[in-house]
Amino acid sequence: PNEEAIQQLYIDPKEAKQASDIMTEALDFAQKHAEHTNDYKEYSKQDGVVLYFKKFKDTEIGKLELTIPNPDSYDDVVSMLWDPNGAKNFDDKFIKGSIYRVYDQNLVIIQQRYKSLIRSWQRYYHALANKIELSKNKTAIVLVSSDMNDHDGGKNKKYVNPFVESANSFKPDIDSEEDIRNGDLYKMYINLVAFFIEKEADCVKVTYVSSIDPNAPYLTPASFIKKIIVKKILTLVKLKDIFKK
Q1: If you average pLDDT over residues 178-201, what whole number do you get?
Q2: Which one, of 18, 48, 63, lies nearest residue 196 by Cα?
Q3: CA 212 to CA 229: how far, in whole Å?
């Protein structure tokens, strides 16, 4: 945790237990949807990286599979993807990440900020983030938003997570910055984001499952929103170059 996490106050053990239970449900959901099923349709393929989409409960889920041909990079890949500021290495729209709650070293609430493609505003989200060691050579990192009370001054809808039901009663109080309280930022929500990072004999395989609610302004064309989401997912392709031998 960095110095921005200092706003840590007493953590209610009930809140910590609830956070942990939510992430158990989220991991279970993510594992099911990381499996390849026929409802995933190929959207694009470049340099051996395949992007798929499917609809589940009327909500789109994207899945990206990529191979990093350097098995020794496993720990570094996990570290970069777990770091709230790790995205600065591959996403040029990323501004900064902060930790807002620490339940334990592998379960936190993060805030991330990005430059918006719509107007010159920043956009941000808060989400629970959990790192789970599934085996000696496989790690999962899972993110989930809920309707947290971050005192956001914008006219935002009441957010309901379409996939992780237990998240919908999780409403911790977040002591957010003035620009959020003034409603100066666009708010996004993470329905579910998951990385499965697996070390194999000659490579590291990354499976990325992503469903983001961009909470875009009314009348924004769906095709434009899809384009933004695709662009964001494909920033991960840069991991291949970052970690090549």
Answers
A1: 96
A2: 63
A3: 8
| CATH number listed for the domain at residues 3-242 | 3.30.530.20
Confidence label for 245 from pLDDT (cuts 50, 70 and 90)? confident
Report, in this order, helix, strand and coil percent for the chain, each rounded to 5.
30, 35, 35
Structure tokens at 98: 């902060």
Distance CA 191, CA 206 (A): 20
Instruction: Look at residue 4 in the predicted model and tell me its pLDDT.
Output: 47
Q: Where are the alpha helices (DSSP H) in the chain?
A: 13-34, 74-82, 178-181, 222-234, 239-242
pTM value?
0.94
53 near 222, Cβ under 8 Å?
A: no
Which of 26-30, 66-70, 159-163, 214-218 comes out lowest in average pLDDT? 214-218
> In this predicted model, what pLDDT tens digit does every residue of 86-112 receive, in sequence order?
999 999 999 999 999 999 999 999 999
Q: Which two tokens stand for residue 114?
A: 């990005």
- For the chain, give every domain's residue range: 3-242
Cα–Cα distance measured from residue 175 to residue 88, given in angstroms and rounded to the nearest whole number: 24
Question: In sequence order, what are the beta bridge partners of 198?
Answer: 138, 205
CA distance 148 to 237: 31
